[in-house]
Write a sequence for this structure.
């Protein structure tokens, strides 16, 4: 059964406190769209389009073009083309999960804390540790790997017992550097290494060669790519960014049917997208890995809520 909704959308911009440094370069402002649907009874539903074009999603301009084409009323479910996965997420999540956008996010969620790249990391874990974070993620592949491994050693020594560490190279290492990194990691030192190299063939080779658990991230940025990796034989961890992965219902079915080992990850979306992901994930039977979504500290408090 379809229903009619009034439809509108608005654009937001949220500057990071300091630019996010990744293997793809610097990122200083998060831009996205908030969509709003109103049913016949006047009830509001919200959804977020938070694209990351360099991660395989559509651009903001493409999302705006699609939203503009809808006019000011829609029939739900709204059919969104597969080329617009971040837009698919927003429309698939708005009605089931986009109600009451100000309800507090559950305190039971276990979060991973994203640490800054480089030497800053040696100071940056302490405050979140005191706030109760126990899982940390550190970006590598930003500087020379040998230098990063020296910092990593100091970080391992500094972190208290009970801390879990994830490394994320954003596909920025060569195969040789990935081997250097994995050979130097003491057994059990980290929870997993996330996407050291770009190629799936090389990821499969590394998984065969080393005991440290490996996760794919860039390779599974949407449902089509996720399916491809699974079919090619990837049986390690899958880091999934639901906000750019496409339809939430289809994503949930794929994960459940194959019992994938999943880590939920942020697309640096606002609380609207984040709340939808968490409400959805509560309905899924996920294994107990901390979600990589504790990123609000990357934004200034004055930008804590999206402008609608
Ligand atoms: Mg990653």
């Amino acid at each position: 059964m379809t229903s009619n909704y009034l439809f509108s959308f608005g654009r937001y911009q949220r500057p990071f406190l300091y630019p996010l440094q990744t293997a793809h370069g610097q990122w200083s402002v998060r831009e996205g769209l908030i969509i709003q649907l109103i049913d016949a009874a006047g009830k509001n539903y919200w959804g977020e389009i938070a694209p990351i074009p360099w991660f395989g999603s559509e651009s903001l301009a493409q999302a705006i073009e699609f939203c503009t084409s809808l006019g000011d009323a829609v029939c739900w479910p709204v059919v969104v083309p597969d080329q617009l996965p971040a837009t698919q997420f927003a429309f698939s999540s708005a009605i089931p999960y986009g109600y009451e956008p100000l309800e507090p996010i559950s305190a039971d969620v276990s979060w991973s804390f994203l640490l800054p790249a480089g030497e800053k990391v040696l100071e940056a874990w302490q405050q979140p540790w005191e706030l109760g974070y126990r899982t940390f993620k550190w970006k590598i592949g930003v500087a020379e790997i040998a230098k990063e491994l020296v910092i990593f050693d100091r970080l391992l020594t500094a972190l208290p017992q009970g801390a879990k560490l994830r490394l994320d190279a954003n596909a920025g290492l060569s195969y040789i550097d990935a081997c250097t990194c994995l050979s130097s990691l003491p057994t059990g030192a980290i929870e997993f290494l996330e996407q050291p190299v770009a190629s799936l063939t090389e990821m499969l080779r590394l998984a065969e060669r080393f005991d440290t658990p490996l996760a794919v991230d860039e390779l599974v940025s949407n449902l089509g790519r996720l399916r491809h990796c699974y079919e090619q034989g990837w049986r390690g961890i899958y880091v999934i960014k639901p906000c750019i992965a496409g339809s939430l219902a289809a994503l949930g079915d794929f994960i459940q049917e194959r019992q994938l080992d999943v880590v939920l990850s942020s697309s640096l979306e606002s609380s609207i997208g984040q709340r939808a992901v968490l409400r959805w994930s509560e309905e899924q039977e996920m294994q107990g890995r901390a979600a990589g979504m504790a990123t609000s500290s990357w934004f200034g408090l004055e930008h804590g809520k999206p402008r609608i």
